[in-house]
Amino acid sequence: MGIPYYLETYGCQMNEYDSLIAATILKNADYSRVDTPDEAKLVLINTCSVRENAQQKIYNRLQSLKRLHKKGTRVAVIGCMAQNLGENLLKQGLPVDFVLGPDELRNLTTLNTQTAYIKTSRTETYEDIIPAIDNHAGIKRENLAASVAIQRGCDKFCSFCVVPYTRGRERSRSVKSIITEIRALVDCGMKSIVLLGQNVNSYNFEQTGFADLLKIILNETDVLRLYYTSPHPQDFPREIIELTAREKRIGNQIHIPLQSGSDEILKKMRRDYTRQEFISLVTAFRDRIPDVSISTDIIVGFCGESDSLFQETLDTVEICQFDFAYTFSYSEREHTFAHKNYPDDIPGEIKSSRLEKLIETQRNIALAINQKYIGEKHYALIEGISKKNSAEMCGSLLNSKKVIIPIPEGKTLFDFSGREYEVEIAHANSQTLRGILTGG
């Protein structure tokens, strides 16, 4: 057994993927992953810096590691918060020995005490580091979905967003390495692949664009279902809509970040599209793909957002009829354009009130959408056991909606896992469908 290490991940799917990269680097250097910090000689905390509460969670977690640190356990903070705060993390009296940004993971095996590795790269994609199937963070035996990063960094520089400063400028991974990784995952039993990028529709490697990449993956791999996240509405290729309508292996689920439904706020956010242009994109998807599921991101309480501008966001949500929305109160981030140029002038209680209204509006929309499925029959990919009841299994429709299904008497999950079955939807709430296998 090699040097024991423990890895904990916070934040987005890209952070999860970076943890796969880190785990593979350490495995190749004769480190062995353990299940708890108490077993480890090295503890890695992979961090998020998108919102203030995410950073506060990391601070609290680091404080809880002080007892192990005093006993000699080394602690490294990696990821976006590490990049954003840099050497300051080493000066706050926290149990932190090393700081590594997302582009510095190759230094994991050559760590020097009290050092911050925080250079951003215009070329690093880690394309030569293919995560082993047993390194997939949080993976369970019945989990049949995996993520593959195709692109890193972002060139959009939205005024509220810290990503270009923590993950650097856009660069795309080679087609060959992407295909190699997807084939390896499919060979190990993965049925669904999610392509990851800060802005996937900006993918461009040696004149191969995003639509071209999707076609190559479909032609050169046997993946059953193919998804991607997250595209930017400004330059979303309409060819992708036609490709999704035509190719049944591309999941008819799309995540399109709105951020605000007000043109005035969108302009201050530097989003480079209008409310109507966003609505037109959503409409184009719904016109061509009737069963499409559309999710989004929305921020309330951005600098200068009045009650009437917030109402424009609520109106846009009603028009777009999202299946799901990730909703947030604006959190000022150091280094961003908004931090330097706009006062964070919306009181916390107003942000909270607006967030509650938005959540309630979206919950009602999602419930109405899901209830329309009752009585319909759809094919579901059986993925695993239900988290709440071991007598039920969980599946997903092609548009990623989750469906809970009773396991037929005398059967086990093993009889169904990894295969598609027709399911009749019997009940629905705002988040989940419930159904039964037809004919069984």
Please explain how this structure is put together:
This protein has 440 residues and is of the alpha/beta class. It has helices at 13-28, 52-64, 66-70, 80-85, 163-167, 175-187, 210-220, 238-246, 263-269, 275-288, 307-320, 337-341, 348-371; strands at 3-9, 31-33, 42-47, 74-79, 98-100, 115-117, 145-149, 151-152, 171-172, 192-196, 204-205, 208-209, 225-229, 253-255, 293-300, 324-329, 377-385, 392-396, 402-406, 420-428, 433-437. The strands form six sheets. A six-stranded parallel sheet has the order 2-1-3-4-5-6, with helices on both faces. β4 (74-79), α4 (80-85) and β5 (98-100) form a beta-alpha-beta unit. The chain is globular and about 60 Å long. 42% of the residues are buried.
Question: Can you give keywords for this protein?
Answer:
single chain; 440 residues; alpha/beta; six-stranded parallel sheet; five-stranded mixed β-barrel; 13 helices; 21 strands; 23% strand; globular
Helix share, percent: 25-40%
Total strands: 21
Low-pLDDT residue intervals, each spanning 5 or more residues: 137-141
Radius of gyration: 22 Å
* Average pLDDT score: 93
Structural class: alpha/beta
The major sheet is characterized as: 6 strands, parallel
CA-based shape: globular
